């Protein structure tokens, strides 16, 4: 459970950095998201998830 909460904490830190360091980029990105095809968004999400799993596997392995 501790590892899970640490992961959520790191997610919040990174998310907060994006809002703090690049708010205008985030605004532009949020305007572009509805224009992107769902398949492209789904692929990007799956790729990010796979990269995260690979990183955890490499770090923990």
Show the helix and strand layout.
Layout: H1 2-21, H2 23-32, H3 38-60
Number of strands: 0
Give the number of domains: 1
Low-confidence stretches: none
What proportion of the residues is helical, as a percent range?
A: over 70%
Helix and strand element order: HHH
Main β sheet profile: none
Average pLDDT for all residues:
93
Strand content: under 5%
The structural class is: mainly alpha
Termini, distance in Å? 19 Å
What radius of gyration results from the CA coordinates? 14 Å
Principal-axis shape equals flat
SS field, number of helical segments: 3
Pfam families: DUF2065
Keywords: Membrane, Transmembrane, Transmembrane helix
Transmembrane segments: 39-59
Protein name: DUF2065 domain-containing protein
